Amino acid sequence: MKILICGATGLLGSYLSNFFLKMKYSVIRAGFKKKGDVKINLCDFEDTKKKIKKIKPNVIINCAAYTNVDDCDKNIFAAINGNVITIKNILLAIKKIKLKSHLIHISTDQVYNNLNSTKKNKEKNVNFINNYAISKYMGEKQILNYNKSLIIRTNFFGQSILKNRLSYSDWVIKNLKLKKKIKVASNIFFNPIHMKFLCTIIELSIKKKIFGIYNIGSKDCLSKYKFCFLIAKKFKLNYKKYLKKIKIVTNVHYKPTGTIMDINKIEKKLFIKLPYIKKSIDLL
After folding, report:
1. CB-CB contact of 148 with 104 (8 Å)
2. Is the per-residue pLDDT at 34 higher than 70?
3. I need a surface site. Which of 32, 121, 142, 283 has the fewest CB within 10 A?
4. Please, what are the domains in the chain?
5. pLDDT tens, residue by residue, 55-105
6. Alpha helices in the chain (DSSP H)
7. What are phi and psi of 202, to 5 degrees?
8. Closest CA to 185 of 252, 280, 281, 134
């Protein structure tokens, strides 16, 4: 099994690469600005086609993305390049070369924004509030008609293996250890999952040849403030003094507040039970 991981020098891509290498898969790590096994400019169709043709992967996992939400709002063209053109070029390359690769695309829970913040979103309940969400959804649309594609909507955390890229949980721990005050929304609700569990589900999806759109997150949900509070308690950090509650106003901050994912579809498809958030936090 030959797996090409695009965006392998990023947060999730690097974690996935290590995971599959430890599982003895043949892994080709593709990056653009940073070093991997191969350099691919996913915004350049000819370069993308040339490299994929040479590798001939059985599976392509696309983790490449433009993830800075504020920057996406300032520059929609950068958002489209990073989140739409890239995945479009990967699919066109697969079709031109006539490969039958299992294409797995990592999307986001940001495509949801339920008006009832504590209500779960099924895969059909998309609602956009910013350019990042719009561009990620447009990226999904590029591959919907490819019958060997899997779109994963998720929110993940865990220890980064990169020195210059922190996960959200890393950021919380670092700032509280440095005794820096951090502001966290008490009215944003989500159900993130540890990268280790996410990688395991991706591997199982490859083995079972799962296609379509699926939410992958923890079984329960909580506010971002409660999430940070639980992390602080685990590491015995001073949350009372340095963890500050704020309220997000959707039409002012352009951040979704109701992003909880309904995970029943993937649980039924793979005959699994996803973990509760505490189990993911315990892995930190």
Report:
1. no
2. no
3. 283
4. 2-166+191-221+259-278 (3.40.50.720)
5. 999 999 999 999 999 999 999 999 999 999 999 999 999 999 999 999 999
6. 11-22, 45-55, 69-74, 76-80, 86-97, 131-143, 168-177, 195-208, 224-234, 239-242, 250-253, 264-270, 277-282
7. -65, -45
8. 252
